[in-house]
Design a protein that fits this description.
Elements: H1 4-8, E1 15-20, H2 35-53, E2 57-61, H3 74-87, E3 95-98, H4 103-113, E4 117-120, E5 126-128, E6 131-133, H5 137-146, E7 153-157, E8 163-165, H6 171-182, E9 186-189, H7 200-209, E10 215-217, H8 226-230, E11 235-238, H9 254-270
Parallel strand pairs: 1-2, 1-11, 2-3, 3-4, 4-7, 7-9, 9-10, 10-11
Antiparallel strand pairs: 5-6, 5-8
Length: 274
């Protein structure tokens, strides 16, 4: 297993809690009357609920910037940097960022805020709900180098939500070539939409093919599924389950955070000492 994983997350099977920012300036759903103050107030409350509930890390994302862009407007990452800067002294766990669906902007934001990792779609060509979606991982890797982001860990989502890989290749083959040719720091495996169950067969196939690259289950982690999913995956990303009543649009419910993290702690107690 990659040594960096324990350096960033000093626990086994780390859980990254998603901090979904409200619609931002320029987004169709932006609340111009409430403005940035309203966005910041919700983000501050959700950060506190995630951290007090025991998550191992937090990832800031513009989840409510619907419909998403594959090349974002500058105002999106700029606003996210402002919000993270305002909250920086309150962040007590490692954090990452995700500017949906823009890998370069995510890396820029990570460098600007000292985030430890980013998650994005860095490879592949897809037919998606927002049109034909192409990537250029070679350019993105060189951009990370150019802006001084060598220490920012890249989480590659190789099963993107709301999209289908255009090449006729199975997931194990995609994983093997992704690991060999594009040098991901970690791989994320998702279900078809936010909060939907990640297929266990797909998760196992990716884990089998990923070698020493850590594999994270990216959607559908729940209190009653976490143990089974983490018996395969090296960590998990949780967003929807942490929301009140498990509804994507709702705010984070600290009781649900504690419930899931309690199950993860039970699992950790069964693991062999490293």
């Amino acid at each position: 297993m990659a040594t960096w994983l324990h350096d960033v997350f000093p626990v086994a099977k780390p859980i990254i809690g998603m901090l979904h920012l409200s619609a931002l300036p320029g987004d169709p759903g932006y609340d111009s009357k409430g403005g940035l103050a309203t966005i910041l107030d919700r983000a501050r409350a959700e950060l506190a609920n995630l951290q007090e509930g025991g998550v191992d890390a937090v990832m800031f994302s513009n989840e409510f910037s619907l419909p998403y862009l594959t090349k974002t407007e500058p105002i999106t990452a700029i606003t996210m940097a402002r919000i993270i800067g305002e909250l920086h002294d309150e962040i007590s766990v490692p954090f990452g960022v995700n500017v949906l669906w823009d890998g370069r902007a995510s890396i820029d934001l990570a460098v600007a805020t000292d985030a430890k990792f980013v998650r994005e779609i860095f490879t592949g060509v897809y037919a998606s709900d927002f049109g034909l979606w192409n990537t250029n991982v070679g350019e993105t890797a060189r951009h990370r180098r150019a802006v001084g982001g060598e220490n920012v860990k890249l989480f590659f989502n190789i099963v993107p939500e709301s999209a289908k890989y255009l090449a006729d290749r199975d997931l194990e083959a995609i994983t093997r070539t992704t690991v060999f040719a594009t040098l991901p720091d970690a791989i994320c495996v998702s279900g078809p939409t936010a909060g939907s169950q990640t297929d266990m067969d797909q998760l196992q196939a990716v884990k089998n093919a990923a070698g020493n690259v850590p594999v994270f289950v990216n959607t559908g982690v729940r209190a009653n599924t976490a143990a089974a999913q983490l018996s395969v995956a090296d960590g998990g990303v949780v967003g929807t389950y942490f929301k009140k009543d498990g509804v994507f649009e709702n705010p984070v419910d600290p009781a649900r955070v504690r419930e899931l993290m309690g199950e993860v702690q039970k699992l950790r107690h069964t693991l062999p000492a490293s």
